[in-house]
Specification:
Elements: H1 2-20, E1 25-28, H2 29-33, H3 40-46, E2 48-52, E3 59-65, E4 80-84, E5 88-91, E6 96-103, E7 116-126, E8 129-134, H4 146-160
């Protein structure tokens, strides 16, 4: 077990250094923000950590584009609906939120907090590098939605430049 943890720490350290040097990183769903769950440096780099999807899969919800600001990633993209998992994340306050979703009120201990607006798409900087994240992607067909696909395309290009 120790060797596995050491190996993971080495891998994460290499990515942190690469991004800090100017290499961009982009990803979606659990592949980026549910990886290396025990590594806080990875969570710091990626800008969030998945903690729940209270209604499981098959939830229909709206993704709301944040048009204030100057990100070219969201230019020309309008709000859209998806049917998938609605990710609840713990989010770094340094991220630049480009799209959000609103969790409806429901039964459970969490309902005492009221209606929650959660980031879906964001960017952040890491040293000289750029980080792009999109929480969509539980099913590949989410990216059949033109707006979702365009967000990913533009986000990957942004991180690569």
């Amino acid at each position: 077990m120790q060797d596995d943890e050491e190996s993971i720490n080495d891998q994460v350290s290499s990515v942190l250094k690469a991004v800090a040097s100017g290499v961009g990183i982009a990803g979606c769903h659990g592949g980026m923000c549910d990886s290396f769950r025990n590594n806080t440096e990875w969570q710091f780099l990626t800008g969030s950590e998945w903690v729940a999807h209270p209604f499981n899969d098959g939830v229909e919800y709206e993704v709301n584009i944040v048009h204030s600001g100057s990100s070219p990633i969201v230019e020309g993209i309008q709000d859209f609906k998806v049917k998938s998992e609605q990710y609840y994340l713990h989010v770094d306050p340094a991220v630049d939120v480009l799209a959000t979703t609103t969790f409806v009120m429901s039964e459970g201990e969490h309902s005492a907090n009221g209606v929650i607006t959660m980031p879906v798409v964001y960017t952040k900087k890491w040293g000289k590098g750029k980080v792009f994240y999109n929480s969509l992607g539980h099913h590949a067909d989410v990216f059949d939605i033109p707006e979702a696909k365009e967000l990913m395309r533009k986000g990957f290009l942004w991180a690569a430049n």
